[in-house]
Amino acid sequence: MNEPLHAAHAHCQSLLDALARFRHHGLHQVAAWGEHLAAVLPLGGRLLAAGNGGSAAQAQHLTAELVGRYRTERPAYSAIALHADTSSLTAIGNDYGFEELYARQVTAHGRPGDILLLMSTSGRSPNLLAAATTGRAAGLRVWAMTGPRPNPLATRADEALCIEADTTATVQEAHLVALHLLCESFDAAETPTTPATGALTTPAPTTG
Predict the structure, then answer these.
(1) Where do the DSSP E strands lie in 86-139?
(2) CA of 35: how far to CAs of 8, 26, 29, in Å?
């Protein structure tokens, strides 16, 4: 077997091993998160999400699924990827420093009862740690998706899903699976009885 093919096999095996551990230890966590989202978002709550690099792309993937849809038609829900507003991002980074990139936005957009999801393969990014501290102080529920324990972000969050894997790539690939399962769990539990904040409703017909 040549070296590139050997590397590809090793990568696939690493992912299979990580997913097996996630399936055994993390599925209950993801299902519970989906149920919690389904209890919060239809009543006007909000999900804030953030990460750096590839984790930023994955956080934005999740918010797109909630504002749009995952599989089946359903209402749009409030979900904001905090890294996607480039004007705010560059202004905050320039004026307050990279560490405050997300914490200041959590202060601006977060409300008690909202959910803050922070994604980091290392669990050590200072801007995400600051966001977690700010979120908890403001009454948000803070979830972390990270690589292996122990890490500071998992400790600072209310709840954490930690993927046991040796490489950043494998952690991110398992995170993507977890995000899709979170969407599936949300859709399965979502039964909106009250319109989300800002939702359009059709007025009842009047007589006379």
Answers:
(1) 115-120
(2) 36, 15, 10
